Amino acid sequence: MNITFPMSWAAALMALSATTLNAVAQPANAAAQPTGDSKVFEFAMVVSAGASACVPKASGRVTIHSIGQVEIMHVAVTGLPPKTDFDFFVIQVPKGPFGMSWYQGDIETDHHGHGHATFIGRFSIETFMVAPGSAPAPVVFTGPFPDASLNPPTNPIQMYHLGLWFDSPADAQKAGCPATVTPFNGQHDAGIQALNTSNFPDASGPLRNVK
Fold it and tell me: 22 Cβ partners below 8 Å, 6+ apart?
């Protein structure tokens, strides 16, 4: 099946592909780095405190292209264990207790410990979660963090941070990290957080800069 993107999407995706190799090689800077084009925003992800002893050289680089209706976000990571699966989330605050969290997708590293992925969605000052009321929810997974059968109601909650987790506690332990089990993968039995955006204030994560 062939998928055809609008021209603005195609141009943005081509630009992201052209910068992938450079992105994984760049060091992570503490400050955000807007480019000359005001619709492109770049920033670093840094190693999480809980993973700093086991993957001290881990870092990430995020490039967001805003094309009006949606954003195209490219994430490049380096310094991680090779041939390892990770889970990528949009989160309310960058470190515990994390707050509201949205499972965005997966990133798998190559034999050099580099990885990258591209996501299309709303990654901007308008990124939020809301639950006007409670409703029954399907209970599918019943592991260490079982599914809730009813959601709590909440007013809109803005979510401007990003986080990356080991897909399994076994992978984290193999890398010399704690084997703590967390809910941050599709079946809610992930390992610890490896990267986050704690280089930004809790209430002003990087997505807030994308207008």
Answer: none
pTM of the model: 0.84
User: Could you tell me which of 9, 189, 206, 54 has the C-alpha nearest to residue 124?
Assistant: 206
Rounded to whole angstroms, how far apart are CA atoms 45 and 34?
A: 15
Long-range contacts of 44-47 (CB under 8 A, 24+ apart): 44/199, 45/75, 45/77, 45/162, 45/164, 45/195, 45/196, 45/197, 45/199, 46/195, 46/196, 46/197, 46/198, 46/199, 47/79, 47/194, 47/195
Dihedral angle, C-alpha 196, 93, 86, 145, nearest 10 °: 150
- 211: amino acid identity, one letter: K
> CB 205: neighbour CB atoms within 10 A?
25
Q: Are 122 and 70 in contact (CB under 8 A)?
A: yes
pLDDT digits (tens, 9 = 90+) for 55-99: 999 999 999 999 988 999 999 999 999 999 999 999 999 999 999
